[in-house]
Amino acid sequence: VQVEVVPQTGSTNADLLARAGALAQPLLLVAEHQTAGRGRAGRSWLSAPGHSLTFSLAWKFESGPQALSGLPLAVGVALAETLGRLGVQVQLKWPNDLLKDGDKLAGILIETAAAPGPGIWAVIGVGLNLVMPDELEREIGRAVSAVPWLARMDRDELMAALLDGLAAMLRQFERTGFATFAARWNLLHAYQGDTVRILDRGAVLHEGVAAGVDDTGRLLLDTGERRIAIAAGDVSLRLK
Ligand code: ATP
Question: Which residue numbers delimit the BPL/LPL catalytic domain (predicted)?
Answer without folding.
Answer: 1-174
